């Protein structure tokens, strides 16, 4: 699925961390003067997830590819650290306890299904990231969330609640379900 090299992955992780550090310490933006590979310049959806001692501390991303992967990781790192409404802004004393994870997404595609059973049969736990939408309500879970919610009905129910919809919104065929895949990698801390 990926055209990213180990060097690209490492670069994105370092970029996310040093971007957060620069913001915390009121330093200049990160120097990106070295050669940037073409995959990092492509427009890709991506998320930056922060864990503090193994617990979620922030996660922000973009599903659709509006910006280069490089720019997306920079912006999402700042937003995950300082703009996730579920958490207070990160402080400098938290930095050493934070582990950075980057997820690079494929283009989402609408999943056609006949009914709830057909939907459950077509979803691939651990592989598919899922987007539920109906009207202005929308939410997504990255493929990694299957690790915490391996039961399809629980996964979809939590996703409905995240969007502010009733827990069984996924059984309504007016709910649009889209899927994508993600390559994700994190710091070895």
Distinct helical segment count: 5
Provide the gyration radius in Å.
17 Å
How much helicity do the residues have?
25-40%
Question: Helix and strand string, N-terminal first?
Answer: HHEEHEEHEEHEE
Q: Got a strand count?
A: 8
How many domains is the backbone divided into?
Answer: 2
Percent of sequence in beta strands? 15-25%
Distance between the termini: 26 Å
How would you describe the shape? Answer: globular
The profile of the biggest β sheet is: 4 strands, antiparallel
Protein topology:
Layout: H1 6-24, H2 38-41, E1 46-52, E2 55-62, H3 69-82, E3 98-105, E4 109-110, H4 116-122, E5 129-134, E6 137-141, H5 152-162, E7 176-180, E8 182-186
Antiparallel strand pairs: 1-2, 1-3, 3-8, 4-7, 5-6, 5-7
Describe this structure in words.
With 189 residues, the chain is α+β, with helices and mostly antiparallel strands. The chain folds into 2 domains: 6-105, Hypothetical protein ph0010, domain 1 (Glycoprotein, Type 4 Pilin); 109-181, Dna Ligase, domain 1. The protein is 29% helix and 24% strand. The protein has 5 helices and 8 strands. The chain has helices at 6-24, 38-41, 69-82, 116-122, 152-162; strands at 46-52, 55-62, 98-105, 109-110, 129-134, 137-141, 176-180, 182-186. The chain has a 4-stranded antiparallel β-sheet with strand order 2-1-3-8. The protein has a 4-stranded antiparallel β-sheet with strand order 4-7-5-6, with helices on one face. The two termini are 26 Å apart. The model has no long low-confidence stretch (mean pLDDT 93).
């Amino acid at each position: 699925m990926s055209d990213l090299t180990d060097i690209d992955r490492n670069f994105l992780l370092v970029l996310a961390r040093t971007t957060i550090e620069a913001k915390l310490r009121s330093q200049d933006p990160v120097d990106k003067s070295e050669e940037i590979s073409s995959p990092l310049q492509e427009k890709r959806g991506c998320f930056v997830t922060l864990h503090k001692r193994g617990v979620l501390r922030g996660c922000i991303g973009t599903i659709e590819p509006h910006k280069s992967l490089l720019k997306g990781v920079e912006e999402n790192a700042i937003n995950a650290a300082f703009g996730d409404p579920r958490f207070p802004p990160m402080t400098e004393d938290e930095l050493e306890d934070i582990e950075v994870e980057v997820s690079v997404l494929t283009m989402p595609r609408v999943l056609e299904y006949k009914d709830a059973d057909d939907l459950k049969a077509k979803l691939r736990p651990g592989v598919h990231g899922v987007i539920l939408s109906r009207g202005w309500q929308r939410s997504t879970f990255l493929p990694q969330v299957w690790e915490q919610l391996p039961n399809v009905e629980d996964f979809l129910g939590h996703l409905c609640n995240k969007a502010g919809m009733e827990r069984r919104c996924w059984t309504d065929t007016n709910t649009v379900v889209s899927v994508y895949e993600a390559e994700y990698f994190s710091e070895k801390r």
